Structure prediction request, 327 residues.
Amino acid sequence: MTVEIATRTMHADAKAIAEAARILRAGGLVAFPTETVYGLGADGTNAAAVARLYAAKGRPKFNPLIVHVADPAMAQGLAKFDAAASTLAAAFWPGPLTLVLPKTDDCPVAEIATAGLDTIAVRVPDHPVAHALIEAAGRPLVAPSANRSGHVSPTAAAHVAADLGRRIDLILDAGPTRVGVESTIVSCLSDDPVLLRPGGVARAAIEDVLPAPLGEPASAQANGPQAPGMLPSHYAPITRLRLGATRVEPHEALLAFGPTVPPGAAQAVAVLNLSPSADLVEAAANLFAHLRALDRAGARAIAAMPVPRDGLGEAINDRLARAATPR
Ligand code: AMP
Ligand code: MG
Prediction:
């Protein structure tokens, strides 16, 4: 991770795609073209790879990522489709439409990729290189735009190299992207689909194939109330979360970080360590899965040890703070 060599850019021919797929299967990061913008790809089933992706982008928060699949059949292994979702997939895939759907019970996508939610955003990109790469990797790929957090989305390989060079393993170059804006995101969690983000497919085109107009997001403001049937936009445990814990109180579970064992840990209802070696990338990869497991431990509260705020620590602390806020 610390080796400072310039990232290779390869013309996206069959040989380069095979090399990229090998890197992705090994947990590496590959930027690749889609019809919208260049995406930064990682194996969506590999929590550590997804954590490295957040680190490479320098994202201060763990937003749920869009999972890219090769075809609708692959999507059905990850998400549950109702009638509206099936209609939209049939009409717009492959293409710049992302659907937010309930996860399947045996969805193999890592918790960190969906930020711990029970829902998943999926799409089938309409680009021969993206399609070939997903097929060759044989995995769903998470792929947010291949830029540093807060920078503009890249529509050419050179933009990716300028922004993320040295932080990722390979860039596949297939020239400028066609659409140039991100995918439209439609949530199909309630009876009426809701437009969450405008993008490459126009609202009118979507409404043409649906029996009723699209609904508006429950609230534009980040933590506003949810409309009935809408699932929360942030994962939060049912069990109370106590932050900054330096000791474990009776009947608490412990979310540990680092090598130090705090007083009371031996009596904890359950103990999981985000990273015994205090590695923030490892901690990020474990965060949502550990929270979920401790939530099921039957504890009075989950005592979370302090996590430093550098690197991915900022995003980890952001999520812990949200998880500690009662709904
Ligand atoms: P991007 O960074 O362009 O890949 O954007 C991903 C977008 O998808 C963000 O706006 C996310 O909030 C949204 N998204 C991904 N997963 C979900 C989900 N499960 N529920 C709602 N929105 C999602
Ligand atoms: Mg982006």
